[in-house]
Request: fold
Amino acid sequence: MSADDYTEEEQTFEVWPDVWAAFLTFQSASTQWRTGMGGITGLDYNVLPWLMKLNGVEDEATALNDIRVMESAALRVIHKQ
Reply:
């Protein structure tokens, strides 16, 4: 699927400033999903410290919690199909 498959409203979402760096890190990890026999299982956390550094994350523990929330939501969408 591509962006053309969705309306502009479906493509638009708000990111709060306090999670912006975590969102950028999550977005940067878009090619770092681990997969198994059942499909995608979650993010490869080994790359997150490097991505956090690149995205200017100051509080890594909080960012990891935020990323895990985003990961969980993404997995629900991925496995819904």
User: Anything to note?
Assistant: The CA atoms of residues 75 and 81 lie 10 Å apart. The mean pLDDT is 91. The first helix runs from residue 8 to 11.
